[in-house]
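Recap from last week: sequence in, structure out.
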Amino acid sequence: MSMLGLAASAYAQQAPDQSGDEIVRLSPFSVQESADMGRYQAAESTSGSRVRMDLMDSTQSISVLTNEFLSDIGTTQLLDAVKYVAGIGPSNGPDTMDIMSIRGFQNWELTTVDGFGQTSYINLDPVVVERIEIVKGPNAIIAPQGLPGGVVNSVTKRPLFKNSGSVSYQVGRYDANRAEIDANYVVKDDKLALRVVGAFTDSDRYMKEKYSQNFTVMPMLTYRISPSTELTAQVMAYNATSTLMSAPVSIYAVGRRNVHIMEGLPRDFALSNRDDNRHESSQRAHFFLTSQITDKLSMRLAGKWAQQSSRASEMNPSSPRDANGNLLDPQPIQVNPITGEWEWDGVIRSDTPRFTLAGAKDTTDRHHGNLQSDFVFEHLGQGWKSQTVAGYALSYRSSSGGYKNAFAAPLNGSTLFDLTDSSYIPASYIVDADWAANNSLRNRSHQVYLYQVLNLFDDRLVLSGSLSQNRFFSGRTDNLSGTSTDERAEATLPSAGIVYKLTPEVSLYYGYSEQEILGIAAPGDLIPAHTTPSRQHEGGLRLRLFDGRLYTTFSYFDIQQDGIWEGNPANWIDPLAPKQPAVTSNRTSKGFEFEFAWAPTKNISVIGSYTEFKSRDQSDRRYAHVAEKMAGIWGSYSFSETGSLRGLSFGIGASYVGERPADAGGQYTTPPQGFQPVRYQAMFWLPSYTEVEANATYRFNKHWRAQLVIKNLLDRDYIKAATNRTIYPSTPINPKLTIRYEF
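Predicted C-alpha cells:
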C-alpha cells in the first residue's frame, strides 16, 4: 500500500560484480512516477499486494488518482474525486462518512487510510491525502474482511527532502471558508525531514442551518537511519462537526412519480436546527519503517493507533398524520402485500399533513490498533524475475456506547408539525434520559499471508498467487442487561492470476480472489454464528501506449457473495407461531468497466470512465442506492509557459449517475391468506443526473496562484441520494476561489 511506501527515494548500493558502478534500487514499498507521462497518469501502485506493482502486471483492476488531479477538481471530500473512477458512485449518505458504492457494495462505516481500515462518522479531510488508490473486488491481502466491491485507499502525504510549502485560503458561496497550510523543512540533508499539513474549515452549506466545521492537523517526520533504512512517523488530530443536507420527500413519491421535495417546502428547507449533527474528534499515530536488509531482501513494519470520540443525531419525519395526530387512514401510498410494490392511486391526498419528528442520539468511543510487517525477496534471473512477499497483520478494535431516543421539542405547545407553515422553525430535540441500547464491542483479527509473482520470458508472462490465513474474533456485551456473546472464525483465502503481454504495451489478464467477513449471530431470528464469503472472477485488456501517456483498461468482473443470513419470511405471517429456521441467500455483482488516463500533449490531460453492471440479490432484485450505469470525464488544458497566456490553465468535467432505487426494506409483506410473503420493493426511484464542473487556474509568478472552481456549473436541480423518506437535493451553482502562496 503506497501508504506503505515512504517518500519515493532511491538508494545507491554497490553490487559485488559491478566494479564500482552504482545500481540504484527503489524500495519495493515505494512508488515512482514519471512527470513525462502526464499529470493524471500513474504506472505503479502498492495497495493491491502491500508492495510496489506495475499496473500492467496486476490481476485486479487498480485505479490511481494523482495529487494533480485531486488539486485540479478542487477535492473537498473523497467522493468528489472517485466519482470519475469506473464502478464507484454515491450511496445513501453523501455528506458524511465518505460513504460510496464500490461495484454495488456500500462501504458503510469503513474508510481505508494508508491501508488501515477504520470507522469514522465524518469525511476524511483531503489536506492529508497525497493520492488515492482503488483496488476493485475482494482482496485478502490488503483487506481480508473488507468490502467485496473493493478498497478505496487514501495514501497520506509524507515528508520530502526539499524545503517547500504553501498556505492558501478559499472563499465561496457554500462549502468554502477554508484555510490550508503545507510546510516541509529539511533539518539535515538526506537524513531528517519534517512536514506539517493542516486545514481549518468553517463553512455554511446550501440548506438553512446546515454547516461543516473541521480542524485537521498532521505533523510528521522522516528519518533515514542509514542509507537503506528509513522511518516515517505521523500524528494526525482532528475535530469535526457536520450536518446532513436532507429534506422530506413528497408524501406522494412512489415509483418514478413525484420524486422531489415535499410540496410547499423550499429547496433549502431545514427540518432541524444546527444541534442535529455529527461530531467526531480523534487522535491517530502512524509509523512506517522500511529497510533493505540485503540487495534482494527488504522489510517493512507499519503500525497505527487511533482513539475516537463520536456523537451523532438524526431527526426524521413520521408518516403523515391528520390534525389530531392520527396516522392517515389510508396513507397516500400503500404497499401491495402480494407484489411488495408501493402504489398511489392519484386520488388519496392530504394537502395539510402533520408530522411527528423523532430520531436518536448516538454516542460512541472507539480505539483502533494495527500492526503489519512484510518481507520481500526479489531475484533477477536471465529473462525472468521473482518476487516473494510474506507477512502478517494484527488488528484490534474496541468501542463502547449506544443511543438514546430523541424527539422534537414542542413548538407552540404541540409535537405535531406542519412543515409548510411559514411559522415553522427548524426543530430542536429532546433526548431521553435512559439508554435505548448500550453495548461494548471488541474485534480482533490475525493474518499471515504469502504472495508470489513470477515474471517469465522477458516479462511477457506474469503469474501470481497468494494465500492468506486469517483468524477473526468478535465479542459483544450488552451494558444494559450484562449479557455477552462472542464469535470466532477462521478462513484460508486464495487468489491467483495470469497476465499475458501481447506486446509490452498490450496485456490480457485474468484474476481470481476471495474474502470472508465474520457475520453476526441473531438468536432472535435463529441466525447462527457464521461467515459471509465472497469471490471474484475478473478479466480484461490493458493498453499503455505513447510512452505511458495513454493508459486504459477494459474489464469484466463477476462477484458473488454467499452466506447472507436473514430471518425466515414465514415468520412475518404469524409472529406468535414457532419460529422457522433462518435462511441464507447470496448476491451478485457483474458487469463491464472502462477507464482511461490520457495526456496527448504535455498541455492536455484527460481522465474518464464508463460502468455498466448489475448488482442483484438471488431474486434479481436491485439493491438500494446502487446506480448500475455511471460515467465520468474530466479534461484540463495548460497554456504554454512561453506564450502570452502562460500561467493559465482550465478544466471541465461531467459525471453521470443512472437511476437507482431508494431505500427498500429487507422485511416481508404480510399477505392475505393463501399468498406467500414477498419483499417490500423500493418506495421510489431516484432519477438519473449529470453534473458539470469546471476550473480555471492562473499562476501570477513562482509564489502566487489563484484557482476558481465551479461546482454544478449548469445549476441543475437533482437528487444526490435518499435515506428513508428523505432526499438529498443538489447544491446550486457554487463558485469557490482559492488564493495560494507557495514558498
